[in-house]
Amino acid sequence: MYGQIIDVPGVKVGNKEDYDALTGCTAILFENGGVAGVDVRGSAPGTRETDLLNPVNLVDQVHGICLSGGSAFGLDAASGVMQFLEEQEIGLDVGVAKVPIVPAAVLFDLVHGDPTVRPDKKMGYEAATEAASSAFRTGNAGAGCGATVGKLAGLNNCMKGGLGTASLSLENGVVIGAIVAVNPAGDVRDPSTGEIMAGPYVRETGTLLDSVKLLEQNYRPTIPTGTNTTIGVVAVNADLTKGEATKVAQMAQDGYARTIYPSHTMYDGDTIFAVATGGERIPVDVIGGLAAKVMAKAIQNAVESAESIAGIPAYRDLNKM
User: Fold this and answer.
1) Are 63 and 33 in contact, with CB atoms under 8 Å apart?
2) Where does the secretion signal sit in this chain (predicted)?
3) Which of 26, 24, 25, 28 has the alpha carbon at shortest distance from 12?
4) Residue 261 forms beta bridges with which residues?
5) Cα–Cα nearest to 153, from 78, 203, 105
6) Is residue 224 over pLDDT 70?
7) Which of 16, 20, 121, 264 has the highest Cβ tally under 10 A?
8) How far apart are CA 194 and CA 182, in angstroms?
9) How confident is the model over 124-176, as pLDDT tens digits?
10) Which CATH class, in words, describes the domain spanning 5-315?
11) Are 110 and 71 contacting, i.e. CB atoms less than 8 angstroms apart?
């Protein structure tokens, strides 16, 4: 129904998580490299190597991307992905060594589980070791392990977020894929119907609240500090420059806006990386426009495949999927 980002040739994905601590990380590998860009739209980001992706800067190939829980602590997981790639002799050749280029982004999942346990170099290495071009787990997997949705009515009323993926294949063989760890302050909605899939859920009454209406009723809402952020990657087997990849990442943010209400808040560090693994020259507007569609589907997949854990209800529980 959804497809996966690994449908894009040259892309591998591996997950590692700790279900007791409710945290994890996801390694997306591009063993033949890929031209990458990034768009950071939220105002509370935790990132690594994003300056390198600026089109004015030198290096234009990445070899992996790490998405992680653990807030800023989780940036350590990217070092494990680097270690794995170095062992495979994959990286930027600087003469005396090959340096793997692995940008990263993190989300905040310290509230539930054990806040003293975060993704580290070892977990990142293990996720990279598991990376393959075969189907991978979504929902409570990898960076989505401790992700939650709908915190405008307080943390006690949140629902389970998770890791999601989707892809779209064109007749000419071009494939656009997305992977995303969904952990927003706001609701997640079905963009085709407007249905609230996950959001503030009052357990006592079984009522699913509307975050936008909460904003209307309280123009000074309390969004719990540091409890959010949605992070993702779009990939395509096409030929793009760094500037064009950056534009694709920017356009893919529309997928967030179509499904997450509100998105890009002061307390969300919403970030999207875009990676082109090479191939045909396709107009940027085609890739970017479709990337937004695929990202929206990946967000839906994350919510639909998530399972309740630690007393946090999931969409499938409410809808008896």
Assistant:
1) yes
2) none
3) 28
4) 187
5) 203
6) no
7) 16
8) 18
9) 999 999 999 899 999 999 999 999 999 988 888 999 999 999 999 999 999 99
10) alpha beta
11) yes
Q: By C-alpha distance, which of 48, 52, 86 is closest to 68?
A: 48
Does the predicted TM-score (pTM) go above 0.70? yes
CA distance 141 to 242: 30
User: Do residues 118 and 23 make contact, with C-beta atoms less than 8 angstroms apart?
Assistant: yes
**Residue 137, SS3 per DSSP:** coil
SS3 79: helix
Read off the amino acid at residue 304.
E
Percentage of the chain lying above the pLDDT 90 cut? 83
3-state secondary structure of 304: helix
Tokens coding 119? 């993704």
DSSP assignment letter at 132: B
Residue 321 above 60 pLDDT? Answer: no
d(CA 306, CA 313): 9
**Per the structure block, which two tokens stand in for 251?**
């356009």
C-alpha pair distances (Å), 162 with each of 9, 14, 63, 298, 304: 24, 15, 24, 10, 9
> What residues contact 22, with CB distance under 8 A and at least 6 apart?
69, 109, 112, 113, 114, 145, 146, 309, 310
Dihedral pair phi/psi, residue 269, rounded to 5°: -105, 40
Cβ neighbours of residue 206 closer than 8 Å, sequence gap 6 or more: none
The string of pLDDT tens digits covering residues 294-303 is: 999 999 999 9
Phi and psi at residue 251, to the nearest 5°: -65, -35
Examine residue 262 and say whether the peptide bond preceding it is cis (omega within 30 degrees of 0): yes
Nearest Cα to Cα of residue 105 among 161, 50, 182:
50
